[in-house]
Design brief:
The structure is a homotetramer of 479-residue chains. The first copy, chain A, has 479 residues and is α+β, with helices and mostly antiparallel strands. Chain A has 17 helices and 24 strands. Chain A has two domains: 8-247, Glutamine Phosphoribosylpyrophosphate, subunit 1, domain 1 (4-Layer Sandwich), CATH 3.60.20; 254-319 and 330-452, Rossmann fold, CATH 3.40.50. In chain A, the strands form six sheets. Chain A has a seven-stranded antiparallel sheet, with helices on one face. A six-stranded antiparallel sheet of chain A has the order 5-6-7-8-12-13, with helices on one face. The radius of gyration of chain A is 23 Å and the shape is globular. In chain A, helix 4 (117-126) crosses helix 5 (136-148), helix 5 (136-148) packs across helix 6 (154-162) and helix 8 (268-282) packs across helix 9. Chains in contact: A-B, A-C, B-D, C-D. Chains A and B meet through helix 1, helix 8, helix 9, helix 10 and helix 11 of A and helix 1, helix 8, helix 9, helix 10 and helix 11 of B. Strand 24 of chain B pairs parallel with strand 3 of chain D, so a sheet runs across the interface.
Chain lengths: 479, 479, 479, 479
């Protein structure tokens, strides 16, 4: 299900003494790579001097031994991986954003989407500010640094600035002497921190970035919380920016996050397996084998198999040597194009009634392809089961799904979708069920706006944002 | 289990009319990439003109749109992916080998290892031949082209030459007008062919290369058989080169081949799953979850789960964004280094008694690492089950395992290995069982020399071969 | 004489209708490449949308067909090549600077050095501005855009802003609808414009960038002048920013500019040849051949030969295939290192008394090397003649020569320098003569501060600027 | 005059003790780069182990610090730069050729063109030899190694083999213990050697490769001579391969070689300057300035100026930052395309009657362009003078000029050529004069077949050679 794209992953490291922070950041970002594959960056702070490098591409493409050496040793680092949403994509918005201001320097990495970006930027431009990017990070930096002219500390400035930010954000930033993490009051996007074995801390979008650094998970950053890391440890500041209720993004559990991550106390693998189990009870079927859509459907398939008693089988092989391909699918017939990266295991499905479990259907193209692959491999029946409700509404809180995208469930009934993708049956997880899979998070603290259209906070006027985004394009994207 | 490396994968395409054979070869080789990742090459025949490109690296790295365009359209193509075994590694032995001789041109790609390379080469050098490489393909080319001086056709020359070749080989070659495939009489290495929808044929080391070209599987090349493909179709020649019995490599089923391939009529997935099932009966254990070693242990794990009734769980996440990394594991503590590419899913294994199914243990390093990862993720017990017998003897038939390699089973008892890798129990598949998993291939037609030391044909004198290999090194390997 | 480095070259293009401006900018920047080889950038304006690309490296390295295509067609473009002076070097200050502000977008490219950078930036930071770079272009952009909040047009804002800028600058900038060029009142740095054959204009640091675009030279931008280019043609605005007198940089004629350029009405080739002629009269010598130091000494040598009657000979061959070399001269003996790029023509100098004409001696290393090369090639005597006075004072107006650099003429008498470089005689052009070689520019309108220490305007406090520059480093320089 | 291309440059180094030979080879090849820019290679011999690297591109592109390190330390090295002539171009014929044979290893680099390639190859193929390339080096290697089966040493085998080689060749080869140089009996191509300061020898196509290695010129290799370099010094073998008279290529002096080289005792600079002097006497003209065609016309122009008394001026600036450009001249008007790399200095030629001295006119395109550039820069008259006779006949001895090339002098009278290129007058050096410029080489020992069609030895049948060359193409040329 490749058409939904998370906006970003952030990383911050604070060490008590100088060390190879560029390499540590590299390792941590590699573990967050699934959250963004368009560009990445690392900034390292050595005694107040900020060295940084950003470019388009995967972490393993952008960074190399020489770059890491040039970034040097340091005490604090901030890293970032990103997609961009459609209107903020490209080199121009690479992060971390590194700036100078009256009171020092700031390197800032963010995951999320401000819903009042346009009005904030209008205000700042009225005051004479100039903007080098079209992204949220610069507006947030503006808000913080302007408050900093009068605030006694960066964290105080951040707290004040947070009062004016709407939408979703999960920030990691460094000043010459501190690492600061903050999560928006609604906590749409995950953010947690851990303790380094040799002293110091790691902040990351997902807990899966901690083990590679040998870090021990401490806890999630709380909604609206600021945590300041320095030599004296981790200090928490509870902000009161509107006392908004939590609205954790359900899609983090369903699709975005890595199965080995635990977000806000909930295992991603378990949430998915539970969705599969409920689905098996909500929509049982007579079948011989359960297979998962690659890769995010596997946990759900294992859950479905467990609850239904139908055996699980590894239905697909993914070609792991083709990260990117220059094959233009348009030049080959579509069925063939898919087979470059994905192949069904005939021995698993041939002559069988197959339950195909996947996480979601956005535009329907992928589902159609994998159903056909199964049939070509000899599946007698293909019963599709989706571990989430139909995806009906655009997301404004950090996901690259816009109203203008062709959401298949918006245009077709479930029956029609079943026909389009060629399945023998198709069923989705119910709204009531999806709210339970991230237990013990209370249902009302989960954002499922993409399923039910009930947006927890104001949504932006797309036209306004376009006004900014459609002006500057930094070319030179990596293929 | 990354320490066993297959030597090569070969591909040949014959079309009735000119087409984008470079692109087709690219697609086919991508599907065979798991058989060799050091170098690759494609030769395309357009009306008798041979255009070719070879370089170190993955297919997706070596080939690019411009190269494919330069290779042009054609009727016949030969492609190759390779590791090298230790003594024939490197750019110098890249294939296909493309040469000119008295009767025309030849492009040849081979998978296997001649056991009488040294004596053949000595003979040819005595006759004044010069050698540009240290690989089997050149010696085979010599044998064929010298016979060709008097033989009436290339296939006749090949048939004669096969009489002098010992060891393993599976060849695809093209002349200006024909595509020819041949498999050594013992058929150690797989080779099959399929029919293209628009006319023509594809020959490949594994059947998994066929679907991406839309080809329909026809059959495996038989031991000692030559098949000639041209405008009149596929013509089979049964050679009588020694009437040696078949010795199909068991490790193709256990580890090398892709699970969706069917070799000599046996599904790789099924052979592995069957091994897991037998293992569950031979070595049962009280446990809560079965997980597979990434990636080749998954099919075995599913089989073990099915036969034991213990649920299967996706125990590991592999970072699919890191194909190669420049992290030197020596610079980091070993446990951390592993976590860059591989992470356990704590939610699957924490607090549980885990059965860890893997395909083999060669040096023990990988097994030790994944056992530790499971324990760190909270596994209460780790019971390791190996879907093959202990690996005790070097392979001389096309696998990169030499006598000098530190085979752990050669130096330690199973009990000691269990302690070294830190498992709570360790059991291997029995010799009698392993011979049954590739049924209906009769046990005596399988080579399991690596398990029992009974080599089906003479093994070479390593020192003799070294005499050649240690003289020329073409530098410039891709990292 | 490679140790003096010009800071930048700028380019602007305005077309009446859309065209391949990225390619045109590429061609123009290649002709200005001698003015800066560290980084370069191009911004193209298509109907108000600014696309841009910047990176470290030569124009021919940074730009490629795909980038140029991505930059697209447009009506207006701005380009830049740069060294950085020591404290503003690196990726962080790549230009053109492209920003958004209240009244639109701005792409700005500058050549020069503000002497009041620190106080301007302090002021802006006090007002809450944040800075992404440590370069002049951003401070100038700030000054312009803040004035633009109240000014009726960008040119009016620029005029106001120019009132606050001290030091040297030669600007090209584009707004959504206009191309604007401006030259500081002292006109240290050159700037001219020409007319495109098909309508439209080109602005460039040097006239040598015009022919490749087929443009006809119109005139130099006047000191303190703003020229606005749009559909109605070129409109001149004479600013009154302090009514400072012109101080054209003499070193543009002596070393920086290309011989085929004409700056402020004076041919660079002619100024150099004239310097050689005067030198022949001021410091004659009995000799057999006149050779020029490569490459900027050749015009002077031809002048010296003409005035002295001693024949001119091509004394050196420069290896034109080595743009950059990874040979570390420290690893080889120095004499050898020089010979990689430069070789004397023995047949020209062997057995002869040689006059070696060069443009300047900064640290003495190069001169010492070329004198030795001539002697090794058989020169009997080497008489060095320099087409400028001794270089004694640092430059604060856009050249990378700082007080801390080891200016040989500051530490040694001419006699001592002669001994250090191993010449048989050494003479410099006199102060009075150097002022005449750029005639008809009046001597008092030339800056020769590097020779006589009489700075035409206030010089900056280095420590203040360092405060900013030493904080942010964007790594990843091209080797 | 870019359309004539030399085939190759060769380099060999012998050291008494192990040293950084890869780096030394790199330096030496950079100095020979003008002799071939399509591909290059280095082979280093360390205690009998041959490490080598070859690829398409300039030496500075193909080699890098890592490659040089991989090539390691050694006692003997062989290097090569090449164009290919039309029918042997491309990666397939990259040199040095490195092979294994019965008696050891051989790395061979050659400059020249065998005229009996086809018959030699036919013979070898009849004997069963296979060929990996379409180049002379492989046929020569065959000849040597076959003789070596019975000869007592490689040099003896080489001597015997030389008896069968016709045409031009200048060889450097290494065996496990020796460096061997040989020059064909007609000595078309240059080859000389020098002594390394720390012991050992350098062999090179031109003497200009010696200074960068600190080597002292010893002497040219004599026609038909073999020189063997080993620990006991340099040993000369005079072969008697047909007692053919010397036919030194006149075009080496006129165009190919670097001005600072001395070939067979004659300075290239002096030969060119002398040609210019004679031309001034043979074809005087009333004019104001003499300029040279870039770059090989400069020495002739200086000679013309000296003899005529008309001042010399630097008429053109060559953009040294554009080694290769991806600008397709076809996409721009031709006049503009030229200006990317070449610009006239208006101040030198404007308002003047200009003598333009160049080395040759092959197809006329370049001459036409530079005459036009001079006129656009204001030249009143342009009188072209060519320092060689009209180029009328193809070269079969190592130059890329074939009968099928459009030699302008073959199709047009001098008067017509003058009109085509737009000159006010055009004169060539006379046949009698050109034979004197390389004095003291006797006129009859110079090959001027390209001017007079008198080929000193049999010329090959192009069709026969094409039979081989048009069969194999190794794609992937560097752009």
């Amino acid at each position: 299900m490749p058409s939904l794209r998370e906006e970003c992953g952030v990383l911050g490291i604070y060490r008590n003494k100088k060390g190879p922070l560029a390499m540590d950041s590299y390792l941590g970002l590699c573990a967050l790579q699934h959250r963004g594959q368009e560009s990445c960056g690392i900034a390292v702070n050595e005694d107040g001097l900020f060295r940084f490098h950003l470019d388009a591409g995967l972490v393993s493409e952008v960074m190399n031994p020489r770059i890491l050496e040039d970034l040097g040793q340091g005490q604090i680092a901030v890293g970032h991986v990103r997609y961009g949403t459609d209107d903020t994509r490209g080199r121009i918005n690479m992060q971390p954003l590194v700036i100078n201001h009256r009171k020092g320097r700031l390197a800032l990495a963010n995951n999320g989407a401000l819903t009042n970006y346009s009005s904030l930027r209008d205000d700042f431009e009225e005051k004479g500010m100039i903007f080098h990017t079209t992204g949220d990070a610069e507006v947030i930096s503006c808000a913080i640094t302007r408050e900093r002219l009068t605030a006694g500390s960066t964290e105080e400035a951040l707290e004040r600035a947070m009062g004016s930010l709407d939408g979703s954000y999960a920030l990691v930033m460094m000043t010459p002497r501190k690492l600061i993490a903050a999560r928006g009051p609604r906590a749409f996007r995950p953010l947690c921190y851990g303790k380094l074995p040799e002293g110091g801390f790691v902040v990351a979008s997902e807990s899966c970035a901690l083990p590679v650094l040998g870090a021990e998970f401490v806890r999630d950053i709380r909604p609206g919380e600021i945590v300041v890391f320095n030599d004296t440890g981790a200090r928490s500041i509870t902000t009161h920016c509107g006392s908004k209720p939590r609205s954790a993004c359900m899609f983090e559990y369903i699709y975005f996050a890595r199965p080995d991550s635990v977000l806000d106390g909930v295992s991603v693998h378990e949430a998915r397996a539970r969705a599969g189990e409920i689905l098996a009870r909500e929509h049982p079927v007579q079948a011989d084998i359960v297979v998962g859509g690659p890769d995010s459907g596997i946990d759900g398939a294992v859950g479905y198999a467990r609850a239904s008693g139908i055996p699980y089988g590894p239905g697909f092989i993914k070609n792991r040597y083709i990260a990117r391909t220059f094959i233009n699918p348009e030049n080959r017939d579509r069925g063939t194009a898919v087979k470059i990266k994905l192949n069904p295991v005939s021995a698993v499905v041939s002559g069988k009634r197959v339950v195909l479990v996947d996480d979601s259907i956005v535009r329907g193209t992928t589902s159609k392809n994998i159903v056909r692959l199964l049939r070509e491999a000899g599946a007698l029946e293909v019963h599709m089961r989706i571990t989430s409700p139909p995806f009906l509404y655009p997301c404004y809180y950090g996901t690259d799904i816009k109203a203008s995208d062709k959401l298949i469930a918006r245009q077709h009934s479930i029956k029609e979708i079943q026909e389009i993708i060629g399945a023998d049956s198709l069923h989705y997880l119910s709204h009531s069920a999806v709210r339970t899979i991230a237990a013990p998070i209370p249902p009302k603290e989960l954002c499922i706006a993409c399923f039910n259209g009930q947006y927890p906070c104001d949504i932006p006027n797309d036209a306004l944002r376009d006004r900014y985004a459609k002006r500057l394009i930094r070319v030179g994207e990596l293929q």
